[in-house]
Design brief:
Helix content is 61%, strand content 0%. It is mostly helical. The protein has a domain of 64 residues. The longest helix has 24 residues. The protein starts with 6 loop residues before the first helix and ends in a 6-residue tail after the last helix.
Length: 119
Amino acid sequence: MDLAQYLPIAIFLLVATVIGVALLSLGSILGPSQSSAQKLSPYECGFEAFEDARMKFDVRYYLVAILFIIFDLEIAFLFPWATVLDELGWATMAAMAVFLGLLVVGFIYEWKKGALEWE
């Protein structure tokens, strides 16, 4: 086994480590370290930062998040299907049409039930 062939990998790892440590050090030295009210304000989730973990919360936030994940994962099934669309027959085209139809029906149902409205 010739160790000389691993030299480029070792150099790459060394350079990556040096650059990573240098950038983290520069960021901690030169960056602002004071907390402001804007930094401590709720971001995306709507909860106040640094409160009790057992506080009451609005379940609608989690409902919208779960609905987003469900639809996002279902739409992710379209990408592999679309890459081989030319080789697939009409049966798979019909199956995907049924799948998308069910997605649309589920979305309309959630919309009519008011699951996507915040107030």
